[in-house]
Amino acid sequence: MNTTMLKMRAVCNKTGLSRSKIYELLGEGEFPKPVQIGKRVNLWPDWQVEAWIQDRIAAV
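== AlpA family phage regulatory protein ==
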């Protein structure tokens, strides 16, 4: 299975959220945790971000 991995900028663009809001939600356990690749690179699987967005839509 091929999974597209997203950098922070792509996650911000996809969700419409700022970096600081994403980090705030991460701290609250309300946003999917990234996969750490190396010491400074965090990536999110596209499907997890998409699922998070769909959950927000369903909750409205």
